[in-house]
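Course assignment 3, question 2. Fill in each field.
Student: A.L.
Task: Predict the tertiary structure for the chain below.
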Amino acid sequence: MGEINKLVARWVRPKIRQLSAYHVADAEGLVKLDAMENPYRWPETLREEWLDLLREVEINRYPHPQAPGVKAALRRSMSIPEDMELVLGNGSDELIQMIAMTVAGPDRRVLSVEPSFVMYRMIATFLGMEYQGVSLRPDFSLDMDTLLSEIERTQPALIFLAYPNNPTGNLFRQEEMVEVVESAPGLVVIDEAYAPFTDVSFIPRLGRYDNLLVMRTVSKMGLAGLRLGLLAGPAAWLNEIEKTRLPYNINVLTQISAEFSLSHQSVFDSQTAAIRQARDQLFKQLQQIPGVKPFASQANFILVRLAPARAGKIFDELRQCGILVKNLDGSHPLLADCLRVTVGTPEENAAFLAAFKP
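Answer field:
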């Protein structure tokens, strides 16, 4: 084993050895409120219709390399302009990687705000790119003076901005987002993973700015198991990013399931509306609990700050009661003493509140 360790130390990049693999908690037997999933199953009649389609799939054949049916369904579902191109990914994570690979090079930098989605930093590190994080203000708004200064100083090839932001749940001011796009020397990607839970989007602005792309996913609307993300923007950019896409990255089961699902958009719209209503109710209930500060959210989760040094204890107590949330304490200074809870069904939210003893 000693020789193996020497080989690993010799050939694996130091920055990779310093990383920890992305951790997904074991949720078996627990009320799962840690991963921002839609908690609702499909109606039984819809499941049966879907299974009938899957029985006809030629699983021995490769999927269509471009998934045109999926792209057409996504255009309709998300009102993507016809003059904008689409690239599909195996979830948003693959798209983030493809975008970064396209612009990677010596001394190229990726910039984002913090706290935000951890994969921006991780994928930059995977590709040997320098990552520059710019801290948000204590209220999780953009620190525009620092952000614009860092853009000017570092000249990033790529900027990611999550909108709404994860894990804080808030929307940055649109005029400030536009100022970032206009100030950036390189590409700006607006990550709209939580678009189903808000009424604002940068998709209508595509084409107005030469360096703006918008990324979406179907995961949060109720299709997390499909692992399907999309990137929309001008052909000049997407034709280059398409070159980094691995062949057949959208498998045949995902393709047929996505087309079928998006043809029943009203089902997911109804579920999304229920989640939004439950989010607002849960926020009000959390506001009534002494010693708890919930942050208003435009996503399908709520960030909660507890009394100092209580987050870990409360996280463990919730787990012992069969409730799994996300403990963010220690992940970033602005997230000290914070837990993040996904909005579940009314029954799941009630179970969480019953077990939540801050």
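Instructor remarks: The two ends are 47 Å apart (CA to CA). The chain has two domains: 2-43+266-355, 61-264.
Grade: pending
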